[in-house]
Amino acid sequence: MRKKISNQKKFRRKKFSVDQYWNMHYTEMYKDKTEKDFKSFIKAKSYDLAKKILKKKIIEDNPNTKVKAIIGYMFHGKYKRSDNIKLSLSNWEQIKLASYPNINNFLFKKEVPRPEGYSNRFNKTNYDHISTIGFKKGEDNWVTKNRKGKMLPIEDRQGKKWTGDKWIDWDKSEMSRIKKIMIEALKKHGNRRTKACKEMNVSRNKFYKLMQRIEGKDWWNKNYPPPKPKPPILPTKVRSAIQKKTMQKRISQGYIPFSHITEEQIKKRAESIRFTRKLQKEKFYQKMIPKIKNALPLNNNSRVNTAKYLGLTISHMHKIMRETKKMYKINWTDEYPTPTGKSQYQI
Known about the structure:
Oligomer: single chain
Strand order of the largest sheet: 3-1-2-4
Order of helices and strands: HEEHEHEHHEEHHHHHHHHH
Distance between the termini: 71 Å
Number of strands: 6
Structural class: alpha+beta
């Protein structure tokens, strides 16, 4: 069964429309690394805001203080004190008077004595247990006991092979065979190490170990360098700003844009632009005609209401109707007469 979320967790996630009162517990660390635990009351609309207000005020009062381990509990109707008694009206009055922010701009805080042996206000450090764990020095160290005399520096492992208990000289014929397989895999995949690993069915770590033991990484990087990563694709706005800046710099140095284009190319470009615009216009009108035809009957053939319905200005809609009348021979006036029988344009 799923564990029930406590009320305090719900309160900490919620943003309230009015200020709530929070019981904040925290630790102050001073410049000399000493620590003290406190609790205080903060007035805020959310738990996150209460933490920000508390931190800001403490640093304002003492800039060299660091606030840590903050935890807060919201006072509510069913809130109980440490003696398991509900808050009385006098308790609520005291909380309101002691809460920060207040008229006097003073943070009331009560120091909570830390129990002996506690390294923080939550835990007691067991130094006897700490001494029994971790790495041991000298002769008791695991590596000294189990690997002394068997270890070999990485720079001396070239041409060597690990058998499981010791290093031995690697058979040259076997080493050249594996080297050939590695080179073929790299060539096949454009020197991409990851794909070469998959081709050989070995891990990337194993692949690099083989590189080191056969020829050394420098040899591989020199003869079969990994491909350079592609630069990230910049957003359109950023790319456009860089291009404009570059062009302005070139123009200031005397460059004339499109100076290499001939008159014939200019004419061809103008024709291409006109043709593209014509196609775009036709595409737009073919899209708008059925929309207008469907919208007019719904709005009693009123041009103004239809324009609003389609999200167009009345002038733009009249323009569309005039153009489509010429292009597609649509008589809007006869097919969709206005309620008054009059129109600004005979369309």
